[in-house]
Amino acid sequence: MKSLFYTLLILGGAFAAYDYFGAPPGKKLIFKSLNTPASTGPKLVLAHPKFDEMPVVKESVPEAPKPAAEMPKAAATAPAATTTVTKPASDPRFQPIEALTGNWMKIPASAFPREVKLLQDAMFKMSVGASKVAAGGKAVAIGADNGVLTLAPTATSPARAQVPLDSTDLKAQLNESYEKWKVVRGEELKKLAAGKAQAMSAPVAASAAGMVDTDGKPLRDSTSAYPLLVNAMKSGQVTEIKPENILRWYDPQPTQVQGKTGWAVKFECNVKTIFGLQPVEAQAVVLGGKVVGWYYTGSGEEVP
Questions:
Q1: Of 261, 283, 281, 259, nearest in space to 270 by CA
Q2: Tell me: the pLDDT tens digits for 1-33?
Q3: 178 Cβ partners below 8 Å, 6+ apart?
């Protein structure tokens, strides 16, 4: 009986311990005072909204600056050329003879025929044979091409010889003649300078209005010439160029003259040189219905 008693005692103690420590509140049978009433408040629910239902927070991105106003496009046409009008030089300027002869490669035909002295022997060929003229002798230069002279023993002989330019004294002759010509020509131009300056400062004739359009551009006549320029030549504005020596007129082109819009008219003409009349290109500059300057287009020098 004792053993049964101890067994029941142990089981009862174990159940009491479970009821006190292990049974959850509200389920205790022995220690009912420990049962607490169930909470009637709302249960805490952790929400897990769907990804596409979550509010989207946009990241603040600074707005790109607006592009600046576009610059106006450049005009399709090239800017007008600028022409500087200078006063007439007190002393005429002459190009070196090398410029007139293309560095001795293009001596004008007007320089021939001319007697020259041979610095080297020259062999003259004929249809029936050949003959030699020794250095120091004379011959007649009848033409030149790319630094090579064509010679004849006399002005009437059919015999010919071709020699280098430096095998004769032709260069020395032309240099000497050119220096003398510049002195004579310079004195001639100086005498005309006073009359030219007076012509350039003369008021524009009333009829000049009919020689230019509303923009001041020179107008052609029935001969394709420009009466405004021709009249200026005849008045003595320029002495190197004569109307009868004009070979070709070009169309007027806008140009800047003394900070204003004017017109440049190019033309080809024959001018007086040591070799006679030779073709060159020049231009007249027009401003306000008046020719205010004449210039060689190659060198930019003023036309005498």
A1: 281
A2: 566 666 666 766 666 666 666 666 666 666 666
A3: 97, 100, 274
Type and span of the H or E element at 170: helix 170-200
Q: How far apart are CA 218 and CA 251, in angstroms?
A: 9
Question: What global pTM score does this model have?
Answer: 0.56
DSSP assigned state of 159: -
CA of 83: how far to CAs of 98, 286, 292, in Å? 27, 10, 11
Distance, in Å, from the CA atom of 196 to the CA atom of 180, rounded to the nearest integer, reads: 24
Distance CA 32, CA 136 (A): 158
Least confident of 64-73, 86-95, 188-197: 64-73
Q: Any bridge partners for residue 285, and if so which?
A: 264, 293
- Delimit the domains of the chain by residue range: 2-33, 81-96+174-296, 99-169
In whole angstroms, give the CA distance from residue 126 to residue 157.
9
Distance CA 110, CA 186 (A): 21
